[in-house]
Amino acid sequence: MKQVHLLFAAALLVGSSLHAQPNFTLQPFASGLSEPVDITNAGDDRLFIVEKRGAIQILNARGAKIPTPFLDIDPQVSTGSERGLLGMAFHPEYATNGYFYVNYTNNAGNTVISRFTRSALNPNVADPASEVILLTVTQPFSNHNAGDLNFGPDGYLYIALGDGGSFGDPGNRSQTKTNLLGKVLRIDVDSGSPYGIPADNPFVGDPTYAPEIWALGVRNPWRCSFDALTGDYWIADVGQDDWEEVNVQPASSTGGENYGWRCYEGDEPYNLSGCSSIGTYDFPVFVYPHNFTTGGISITGGYVYRGIGNPSLYGKYLFCDYLSGNWWALEDNGSGGYIITPYGNVQSLISTFGEDAENELYAANLSTGQIYKIVENCNAGSIVTGLDAIVLGPNSVSLAWDALPNADGYQINGRAVGAPNFSKIQTTATQRSVNILTASTNYEWFVRARCNDLSITAPSTLKNFSTPALRQAVALQVLQDGQQLYFDAPASGQWMLHDLAGRLVRQGQTLEGRNPVSTQQLPDGLYVLSTQTETGQYRSALVPSVQR
Domain check: are 105 and 36 in the same one? Predict the structure, then answer.
């Protein structure tokens, strides 16, 4: 018999006077997105923002949006009611195979799970013609599409599907064992055609169940996530009339949980017709009521925080209510229960949370299109995050980092690798150019913040880079017209465009006379354009790429 998690009502009804003061701020990170519903990363310093209309945008490390969408499938996506492009997940081996997966509702209103592949020529663009449809699920109504996709620590793809919509699950789809709606599915995208069924799925070999089913009895799971440390699977499920709920599937689970809908809404009976005994269901670890004082109307699930910049949040599952704007944190108490911290009203209309590659947390406002980074207020335990170094040349670098709320200033610490001491630079800005470096040298840097309570934060993570070697080269004269560069060549040969990390991003053949070089779809920044004639003459210039 499965354990039933009972939640005492007294623990729920926490008055606003007992709300904890949040020790974090929603720091604006990017704006201008259209109805963002998902945030994820590809293991590097970019954020990928899923827009409900059918596009995926890329934000660079400083929050600037790359002008061309990563993927735009707007014509094949229906967006009425709760439909749209609703989720994405990168394959665990994305860096080598370029695969990512999306969940959208097609023009017939049905859920489609598809694989796309990034462009072989440009890492910031996917190939729209590369779609491989893995699964199509008929949706009887326009709501309760859910939409989340997550790769688990086991490498399998987890697909959370709502109950098909309307009101009260009229077809009892969540409890129908052969119906994929109202379930969490688990499939193997690396075997089978178009996918395989993991051999350890809980209902493999049982003809009364669809073999894809990993768990059942969910209503409209609106954002699910895996704890990056423990592998526990968190499911925030939107309620019907009275309760919103959070379910946790431990990493040790072998699947098969039944979270109770439509028999139960939260801990309370909803429609017990045809239901089994109470002991066969898995109840939530937390519920909150439908009121705007202590609860809300529609849950938005979050993440267990595993970054370094917000130590007071470490190990806590952060989530909120979309309509009331109330936020909470849940933390495992180590003995089978959870500690709840209510923060009260922080911000409403938060449609999704997301992580970057360093497990720092972000949130999106569906209405305004604003993306926020969740940043702890400056204190002695804080850590500056987002330190980035852009090499400008053999003797200079531009350093930038994320601001800490309530910081009076910052201390930059840098040295050549192997040098005995760090040099310190004081600044009140969050960006600083340093122009006293040595060519062909490896450097390391970290940043501390000075808080307005006079404390000093712990050091940020180290940022390492190398300054380029000085080249004996003739200066190359370059003209720029928007996103097109032009240079004159005295003879035929070749040209190369490198970023400041030394990576080749474009190349081509040079003809005698005027030659064009396009910087379209390249991230904003500086690049080195070099030419070499057939006789070996070398010329170079530092050139900008500006997309706006």
Answer: yes
Span of 272-286, 359-373, 508-522 with lowest mean pLDDT:
508-522
Q: What is the pLDDT of residue 498?
A: 80
- The pair of structure tokens assigned to 292 is 């705007």
Same domain, residue pair 108 and 228: yes
Count of domains observed in the chain: 3
Confidence bin at 7 (pLDDT 50/70/90): very low
Residue among 331, 333, 327 nearest 317 (CA): 331
347: number of Cβ within 10 Å: 14
- DSSP 8-state class, residue 9: H
* 398 and 521, same domain (yes or no): no
Neighbours of 474 (CB within 10 A): 11
The CA-atom distances, in angstroms, between 543 and each of 439, 477, 497, 507 are: 19, 10, 9, 15
Pairing relationship of beta strands 442-451 and 463-466 according to DSSP bridges: antiparallel
DSSP codes of every residue in 156-219: PEEEE----SSSS-TT-GGG-TT--TTEEEEEBTTSSSS-B--TT-TTTT-TTS-TTEEEE--S
Q: What is the span of the domain harbouring residue 491?
A: 474-545
The answer to whether the beta carbons of residues 545 and 519 sit under 8 Å apart is yes
Are residues 459 and 361 part of one domain? no
CATH code, domain with 219: 2.120.10.30
Question: Is the pLDDT assigned to residue 179 strictly greater than 60?
Answer: yes
Once rounded to an integer, what is the mean pLDDT over residues 388-405? 86
Confidence check: pLDDT of 89 > 80: yes
Question: Is the C-alpha dihedral spanning 214, 219, 225, 229 positive or negative?
Answer: negative
Q: Could you count the other beta carbons within 10 Å of the beta carbon of residue 18?
A: 10
- Check whether 5 has a pLDDT greater than 60: no
